[in-house]
Amino acid sequence: MANTEINFYKQINDQVTEEAGIKYELPSFSFVSEDGELVEMLDTDETGNNIVVQDASWTPQENNLIYEQRFHIEHPSELFGRDKVTDSANKLGIAVHVYSRSSFFQETIACDGDIYDTDEEITVSFKHEFPKASLRGKIALEFFFYLKDFQKRNPLQASFVGTNLSQSHIYRVVLHVDGDAPLFPITQRDVPGGPLWTVKKLWTDPSVEMFDLSTVQIELNSAHPLIEQVDAGKTRLAVETLSNIIIESMGMIIAQTLADMKEQELSFDDECAEGSIASVVEQWITLHDVDTTNIMTIMSSLKNSDLKDYVATAGDEEDGD
């Protein structure tokens, strides 16, 4: 994602990267086989900042995916001091923004390890497991430095824990995965005189029926006068309109699924099929910290989440094509 903000605090630019000896190892991939063995994936294909994840014995529907990577800071002291990125009393960390329009999720994950003022090399490790049946299409990972612990501030230095201190990504990669994780089911149809969008519930049992176009649809009306506001790319109005549609649709789907599960005496503790409507709704609830007390709390939780930011950046993983 392009960083268009004007920052009034010191950041880690190319010169600082070179002075501090900031380097990274290429990521490695593995998965757990049906026999419970950890299998290293050796057939991945890397081109630029794109990696095709593949292995003869791995499928994203049946296996998890374990991503591992290490970052080295050869001269950490170059980052610390009154005239440097942050004071010597503070600590930095590395985090990664992981997001995918295809799999419809985003999250920011902190890597293991602190970066502090020392003359010795520091290695920061990242390891993350993507569950089976959770990936499809393209998944972008963007690594950056952030202020992890704050004790003292000097002029032109960031003072808020969590502040992104990278002028550009430490490392950015787009994973290409050929999987069957559920796409957000948006379709279009001409309905003259109809509303801009509708949600269609086509499922009966959310615990076993798959989350796809055959069970649920968010249908946009291509004959509606305001459809151009949705199709106008990444303009502010288009993003706002589409994010409102997605948030309200998700709220309705969550509420209806919970109602169906209550009527059928089902719960998320029961065995729900991978990729089912119930499993997807459970993921939404967990990921966006949704209060499911009633429809109003559901909508409020979604509107106060980072979903709007996600819609604004969701297409950016394609920049690495």
Which labels suit this protein?
five-stranded antiparallel beta sheet, 27% strand, 6 helices, 2 domains, single chain, 14 strands, disordered C terminus, 321 residues, six-stranded mixed beta sheet, alpha+beta, Immunoglobulin-like
Question: In a few lines, what is going on in this structure?
Answer:
This protein is of the alpha+beta class.
How would you characterize the overall build of this protein?
With 321 residues, the protein is of the alpha+beta class. It has two domains: 14-177, Immunoglobulin-like; 186-312, no CATH class. The protein contains six helices and 14 strands. The longest helix is centred in the C-terminal third of the chain and has 28 residues, at 236-263. The chain is globular, with a radius of gyration of 22 Å. Residues 317-321 have low confidence and may be disordered.
Summarize the helices and strands and which ones pair or pack.
Elements: H1 14-20, E1 22-24, E2 28-32, E3 38-41, E4 45-47, E5 50-52, E6 65-73, E7 91-100, E8 105-110, E9 122-130, E10 137-149, E11 171-177, E12 186-189, E13 197-201, E14 216-221, H2 227-231, H3 236-263, H4 277-287, H5 295-303, H6 307-313
Parallel strand pairs: 5-11, 12-14
Antiparallel strand pairs: 1-6, 2-3, 2-6, 4-5, 6-9, 7-8, 7-10, 10-11, 13-14
Helix pairs in contact: 3-4, 3-5, 3-6
